[in-house]
Amino acid sequence: MAKDEAATKMKRKVYEKELHKLQVELCHLQEWVKAHNLRVIVLFEGRDAAGKGGTIKALTEKVSPRVFRVVALPAPSDREKSQLFIQRYMQQFPAGGEIVIFDRSWYNRAGVEYVMGFCTPAEHKRFLSLCPQMEQYIIEGGIILIKLWLEVGMEEQERRFRARIDDPLRQWKLSPMDTESFRRWYEYSHARDLMLKATSTKHAPWYVIRSDDKRRARLNCISHLLKTIPYSRIRRDKVRLPKRSAKGRYNDQTALRAIKSVVERY
């Protein structure tokens, strides 16, 4: 990474201050979604190592997992392969008062499945043709649908891949599929372009987030969501802790002494 490029990266202190402000607003959004029984789907797509996981973590770390539910489906089973393509995704759709975040989605068919040959050209073409209609149906059903594409540059992706190779805490992120996607950069670019052209519609547009600077990308993503989902702050009554009752008072630590405890190494 060049020195001037590193200098433009957002500083941690600035990032954490801005992230805190946005996370407070996400808590207000959460209350609004619950109160008004809204249903929201947020799709995260993008190149490998584009920062989807870190962005989703920043988005969800201060809110309730009962409202913000993350879905990251594994490869389909043999049974799922025999179903309608979108069937296993629809099973994860939100109920009232939920925001479902897809860490990759039905757009796998337009990306990895198409590039790696896991679907036929006819299946790929059919998906691109039917997807806008399907998403129109989802939106007309009352679901708010937000589609985000994280785009990382070629040099930055390579830097992140090499960092994963050397870091035991991140090696699990580097799969054979990731290394193959690294080799096929331009094939993925072509697949991306076809997908965006066919499925970025007036009713369900794609939004691109540049993610070479992870911190800026996370803040821009959360800010976009807050502006896309209309909400207002809900006034809540201040919680007051009641006095503890002394009824049945006894030494409630005595019974614990007979149970094994974890060795206190720290």
UniProtKB/TrEMBL annotation:
Report the family membership. Answer: Belongs to the polyphosphate kinase 2 (PPK2) family. Class I subfamily.
Per UniProt, residues of the Polyphosphate kinase-2-related domain are 10-235
Superkingdom of origin organism? Bacteria
Q: What is its EC number?
A: 2.7.4.-
Q: Which Pfam families match?
A: PPK2
Instruction: Name the NCBIfam families for this protein.
Output: PPK2_P_aer
Q: What is this protein for, i.e. what is its function?
A: Uses inorganic polyphosphate (polyP) as a donor to convert GDP to GTP or ADP to ATP.
Q: Which UniProt keywords apply?
A: ATP synthesis, Kinase, Transferase
Instruction: Name the catalysed reactions.
Output: [phosphate](n) + ATP = [phosphate](n+1) + ADP
Query: What SUPFAM superfamilies does its record include?
Result: P-loop containing nucleoside triphosphate hydrolases
Name it: ADP/GDP-polyphosphate phosphotransferase
**Record PANTHER family:** ADP-POLYPHOSPHATE PHOSPHOTRANSFERASE, POLYPHOSPHATE:AMP PHOSPHOTRANSFERASE-RELATED
Subunit annotation: Homotetramer.
Q: Which GO terms describe its molecular function?
A: polyphosphate kinase activity
UniProt xrefs under InterPro entries: P-loop_NTPase, Polyphosphate_phosphotransfera, PPK2-related, PPK2_PA0141
